[in-house]
Design goal:
Number of strands: 7
Distance between the termini: 79 Å
Largest sheet: 3 strands, antiparallel
Number of helices: 14
CATH architecture of the largest domain: Orthogonal Bundle
Order of helices and strands: EEEEEHHHHHHHHHEEHHHHH
Radius of gyration: 30 Å
Helix content: 40-55%
Amino acid sequence: MNVARIVAVIRREKLSKSTNEAPVCLRITKDRRVMYKTLFHVSPEFWDDKNRCIKKQHPNAEILNTTINQKKAELEKETLFLTLADSSISMATIRNKINNRTSFDLFEYANKYIEQLYKDGKHATYKKYKSVVKKLRFYVGNGSLPIKSISLDFIKGYENYLMNHIGNNRNTTTVNLKALAKLVGDIYRNYDMDETGNPFRKMRFKREQTDRTFLEIEEIHKIQHLRLRVRNPLYDAREVFLFECYTGIRISDILTLKWKHITDEKISIRMRKTEKLLTIPINDYVRSVLDRRRCAVENNGGKITSEKYVFNILKVDVDEVSAQDALNAISSATAVINKQLKKIAEQTNIDKNLSTHCARHSYATALLTNNIPLPVIKEMLGHSDIKVTQIYAKVVDSKRNEVVECLNKVYHG
């Protein structure tokens, strides 16, 4: 086994003319390749070449020599760990390990990745990965998961655990496995490991087509014509729901929609989920909603300003609070609206699971059934991949098949 050799040296050729000090480094040698890890700088007169340490004459000799010994021991442990995991490990891999501090333990790497998501304000993704790793920790049963222990058998066992012990459905299981695959892939790339050893490399993730609840035009009209007083708690929920039905804008973007995002002809927002710019032309129904909202504010002695919400539901300004607080506020408001939509479904005798996302599905399906081209619908929904939009096409096709079956039953009596 070819283990990297590590020694402490002073690099006199790097002597600074301004300070007259040279870097003390750990020199790592493997397969005739060399790299240096700088620890600190001292005057060359204090370096003991024979013993590879700082001379006692230096005022901080004890502290500096302790630093050398500790760092050397850490690197020896890390490089040995790397070599045991993969005997053909390269100097490039060792360099990446030392410079990036990437862990060979999945949980250690995942913790750093999750922390970075939080720092970057990507709180939805942060929550997803936190949940994914929590499940995996419970399955593993201890605090570490070496990358080499993640085999195809391990993945199949974990897949079985998710579906048959926790009760996750096929799509939720796939979300968990894809997140795990991303973390494992990161480690393989960061270590320059042979990716043929990555068990996820040739895996094809399965997904099941789920029933996307959507409303027919007649059902949308029933909700639209439901008589509600303005002070009824269901009134705003109905307004938001129909606004989504007629624009396709996600609930998170509707709740944070401000008057500054609206002109006479269009709504322009940067979507919270993807940060992609979305522009929606204003149709007659949306214009009527906006007019009602303006009148309601002005009739109550208020004034429309660019920074005010169109739907005054959120209790915080998402531009003034942390990303986590904004996410919590949006999630709470959406949960309340979804509860109110269940009551609206009862009052309109609509036997479907009404939710804010049902409105977005209804919008997409309405466009498809009216033969609007898929690429256009993709842009209107703000999808980054047309494959996502094609899911709605499959829903419409399945409904067409139901019509055929119905007519066949009529014909055959």
